[in-house]
Design goal:
Helices cover 39% and strands 22% of the residues. With 220 residues, it is α/β, with parallel strands linked by helices. Bound molecules: S-adenosylmethionine.
């Protein structure tokens, strides 16, 4: 079972009682939400860019990569804030997203942009040292009552397990709606892959500052 660290006083009622609905609760899919002005204001936002860079640094810290020049997949890359930063830090990065307008917003040809669904990524087994997915997983699994969503999530974890090298790691920063969703994600991982995993929660009792990370590690 996936352990949850950093949640000593995590209380569902208090902590997940966020007043405003998040876009993934209001829209069926990312493709329906990220369009036109919404897409371009996200891609042009300097404050989102700064936040995503900070989250990326924390994700790298959590993964404790041994090498400085890893091959990393940025899954659900959007306009490329994370992938561009990883590249600046010396990693070789492949940027993947399901929305072509995001991949074409900036010139990120050097990041090998790939238009695909991250639940079914088109890669050979054992090629990535690491996978980073920032603020995307909540679009894949937002509710437990849809069988298609569950199958997509199983597809994602099985695929990520396959495309990571032995001892490779994947880290997901995301915004789950509830602690139950986190528990279900943990169950799906343990029932379908041999990943070892844990949740790491920064600022657990401050809903505005809280950041939830899921780290999964493939064994040798
Ligand atoms: C909030 S944005 C985050 C973008 C980027 N990771 C960042 O940190 O700026 C969520 C992204 O997840 C992508 N996404 C959602 N579902 C996806 C899927 N099934 N496959 C690939 N990308 C997906 C969306 O297209 C969108 O670009």
């Amino acid at each position: 079972m996936i352990k949850i660290l950093g949640h000593s006083n995590l209380n569902d009622k208090y902590n997940f009682n966020i007043k405003r609905k998040r876009p993934e609760e209001l829209y069926e899919s990312a493709l329906e939400y990220f369009k036109n002005d919404t897409l371009s204001s996200y891609a042009k936002s300097k404050s989102i860019m700064r936040t995503q860079r900070k989250i990326t640094l924390r994700a790298l810290e959590i993964m404790e990569l041994k090498e400085n020049h890893c091959l990393i997949l940025d899954a659900g890359c959007g306009p490329g804030f994370v992938a561009i930063y990883l590249n600046e830090l010396g990693h070789k990065t492949i940027a993947l997203d399901i929305i072509s307008d995001f991949l074409n917003f900036y010139d990120i040809k050097g990041l090998n942009p790939i238009l695909a669904d991250m639940c079914y990524p088109p890669f050979q087994p054992s090629i990535f040292d690491a996978i980073i997915s920032i603020s995307a997983l909540q679009w894949i699994y937002k509710d437990s009552n849809l069988e298609k969503k569950r199958l997509d999530l199983i597809g994602l974890f099985k695929s990520f397990y396959s495309i990571l090298k032995p001892n490779g790691k994947a880290v997901f920063q995301f915004y789950p709606k509830s602690k139950e969703i986190m528990d279900e994600i943990g169950k799906i991982i343990t029932q379908n892959t041999q990943f070892k995993g844990k949740f790491i929660i920064d600022n657990p009792n401050n809903p505005r500052k809280r950041k939830i990370y899921l780290l999964t590690t493939k064994g040798f």
